[in-house]
Amino acid sequence: MEYFWYIIAAAGAGVGTGLAGLSAATVMVPILIVLCPSFQGEYGAYQATAIALASDILGSAVTTSVYAKNKRIDLRHGWVMLACVVALSTVGSYVAFLAGNVVLGGFTLILTFCIGIRFLVKPDTSKPGADLSRVRLGAKEIAISLFFGLTIGFGTGFVGTGGGMMMLVVFTAFLGYELKTAVGTSTFIMTFTALIGFVSHALIHPAIVLERWNVLIICIVTATAASLISAQFANRVENKTVGRVTGVILTGLGAAMIYLNYFR
Description:
mainly alpha; 0% strand
């Protein structure tokens, strides 16, 4: 039965990545730690985050390729975020190992639910009439990128996410990105942060690769395929449609996982 949940978790993670640039951990970690008994041990949540990061690598890469083909990536305004996120992800990974299952697992469940509500309330984060090509990366934008980039980088390692949702908010709300350009840019960055995060997790806790190789393969293949399909869909529909679909999926998943974990 666990293999069924592996596929469901990875497929849901891939859909989230392709639709809205969400990290695989947003969907995958709650399912693995709540519904799979083998991930409920001392280092279960840590291993689940590592598997999510591994799934993010190829999932984000294929998503990026789809958005790049549609000319929806802009690193001219996002290079500071890229540098900061990459720099702090390893630190967060080590702290996550020390934090343990209770802190890491509970935080991820609540985060999933909150992100879903956020998408339902405001499915389209784009600013009408915004023209990013005319916006210079000035001192204010650099300061914003530094602050959020360092924060997101630490969170990437700690929670086991690629930082996609948090980068999405920063790109749209503070740097003026259109939603799909924000998704394409964040998934590009996630490709590298997920790789660094997974390697850090694996070096700190080698059992992830030695004992969970079968789960890794299943999740990586499934998440990559789902990311490709959902990214192609997202580039054909309106921003609001993408936001609403993502909000419904994450809110429902978050609520269900919180109930199963704390109230059943």
